[in-house]
Amino acid sequence: MSEDARNTDATEGAFERLLRRVVDVRPGETRAMMTSFVFFFFLLSSYFVLRPIRDEVAASSGVTKLPWLFAGTLTVTLIFNPFFSALVVRFPVRKVIPISYQFFVANLLVFYGVLRFMSRAEGSTVDIWTGRAFFVWITVFALFNTSIFWCLMADSFRSEQAKRMFGFIGVGGTFGSIVGSAVTASLAPRIGTLNLLLMSVALLELAVFTVVRFPLQPASGAGDAVPLTRGSIPGVRGAARDQDVIGGSVWAGFTHVVRSPYLLGICVFMVLFTIGSTFLYFEQSDIVGHLYASKAARTAVLARLELAAQVLTVMTQIFFTGRIIRWLGLAATLALLPALSIVGFGALGAMPGITALAVLTVLRRAGNFALTNPAMEVLFTVVKREDKYKAKNIIETFVYRGGDQIGAWTYAGLVAIGFGLTAISYAAIPLSLVWLALGLWLGRKQAILAGDRDATPPVVGGILVPSSSTSNVS
Which of 251, 273, 293, 360 can bridge 344 by disulfide, Cβ–Cβ 3.0-4.6 Å? Predict the structure, then answer.
């Protein structure tokens, strides 16, 4: 062995030893975990450059317009779900993923062109309606952005691996969120929000560059994992290529959800979460819209709130997420955010105002990113492979936006009958109690399903090799 090779091995060995102090990663898993980490970093940094821009549109539009924006988002999500399923049916999933992200890159460039060359001035008709279209499309992008990523993760790691590593992988996304929010907060007043779209495009292209190098299972179940290259899968023979095509029906995501109590339970859990989040989002938009007059000021304060949430998230993910899931169990972990919401909405009802709203917003977002999201992704590791791409995508996009729509029109209805911030906050408490009970049930059900999967497929290079033995969820 050459001196350079020995030095490289020594460096990699030192890095893995340091990494194992933070996360329970085992031999052969490091490459897959770190590729996932970097991939998620670029994905969320790209989105969080855009999120404060989107939220500024909501704040400037006013609470009365938000239900209609959410209705537009739900409609667009419903339209595009079958298109994604059709890609999964016909193409290898590791081709579908970069194709999907390139589609969003093209759309961001279209928005940049319209706002640059067609919008005459801030507040013009073109500016207002393009902003609303941007809100809808970026909200759709946000869901598909993360859903596609976690589809790949649920397909690639076993339940036991997910409990150990999903928290750390989530740190990559949190770092990306922090970078994206910080970039927008610091650069929006200097270069304008429009030029930030190009930065988001560049980050999304780096995510595509990373995902095409995600480890693949080898052709015949032996040897090293083969990296994906753009447009081809070298070294993977026909059998492995066929296995990577999900196939089935375009509408299987909908039908499988309806037939599975477990998947329906996840749907209701998601809806209850989004209703609470929508209540909080509307209250944030109302308060920020009244307190801050200019677009730049609203964008900056929203970015600072997001930055605070992401800093708290990353500290939790690095030191506590994996340990909490292992020590408390999945059921208790899923119940933590509902319990926090019960206390938080009670406090917001008792002390309505920007301070209580900011504290609850930061704690709830951090709790979601650091604990609830990784725990929910573990739920999908025990479903069959087709459901990891079809049913999961339906739940995390259409069902999620359906919950937004329920929350949006419920909020509008409560306001119409005279409810203020205090009364609406108190109304969220019983919903959070039901949400808590459902989280406990789902966690226990996942443990039962994971325990039934004795014949687990082998792992190559840290990646689960899919097989026909993957159990179905009834």
Answer: 360
